[in-house]
């Protein structure tokens, strides 16, 4: 709904300008609505970036970009939507176009760096981050710096960057989870478990951290579920993960028992656990 005051003001403006310049009322309406639509589109851009099918968002931004090729916010929206849709090669091209724009920001370069990491172009991602001044400090920038340091096995730098990233956001759970996974891949399961536990404490809905915590415990021979919030389905999935961890360590009987528990716990048919158990029993029989 348009506000009456705004409608009245527009009407007065149309009358005044039309009388002075000879421009038709229709032209003035079109120009004024074009200005209003920029605001409306900006709001719609934000909605499209966070809701709905990411491929629909891609289509929306592609259409909008055709009519507004100069608008960097539309180019940025297209690049982000392509990342959400996991269309990484296209996203990389889109971010290149954003960064080449005269109004590009350091945040845009961080967006390009993240897409380069998703594409497996670690050297290019590192070069992109290195080109950003050190005074630009955001949690997203340092999270990516930590991941690059991980890829280079520069563990001290990675730990430092993860710590900084976690301190620069009100929602550190994903960063703590990434940091924990880094520790796990280095073989430091106890430190990884502590970080996963911290992540879950920050966000009790983060299932990846729960699953990673179970893996870290299983790697230490601890096959009990931690005391954390979980649904019945999550409990079954975590038992499955724990069973596989036990089997990997050679504790086959324990692993089979955990897989049976997972199948019994799941509120529906747990196909993945059933297949794991069947394969294990067939292998033992053979």
What structural class do the secondary elements suggest? mainly alpha
Rg over alpha carbons: 26 Å
Q: Number of helical runs?
A: 15
- The helix-strand sequence is HHHHHHHHHHHHHHH
Percent strand equals under 5%
- Give the averaged pLDDT, no decimals: 87
Poorly predicted regions: 1-21, 28-39
Question: How would you describe this structure to a colleague?
Answer:
This is Flp pilus assembly protein TadD, contains TPR repeats. InterPro entries: TPR-like_helical_dom_sf. The chain is mainly α and 286 residues long. It has helices at 4-21, 25-50, 54-67, 72-84, 88-100, 106-118, 122-130, 139-151, 155-167, 173-185, 189-202, 207-219, 232-248, 252-265, 271-285. It has a domain at 230-285. The chain has 15 helices and no strands. The chain is globular. 34% of the residues are buried.
Question: Any descriptors?
Answer:
mainly alpha; 76% helix; disordered N terminus; globular; 286 residues; 15 helices
What topology emerges from the helices and strands here?
Elements: H1 4-21, H2 25-50, H3 54-67, H4 72-84, H5 88-100, H6 106-118, H7 122-130, H8 139-151, H9 155-167, H10 173-185, H11 189-202, H12 207-219, H13 232-248, H14 252-265, H15 271-285
Helix pairs in contact: 1-2, 2-3, 2-4, 3-4, 4-5, 5-6, 6-7, 6-8, 7-8, 8-9, 8-10, 9-10, 10-11, 10-12, 11-12, 12-13, 13-14, 14-15
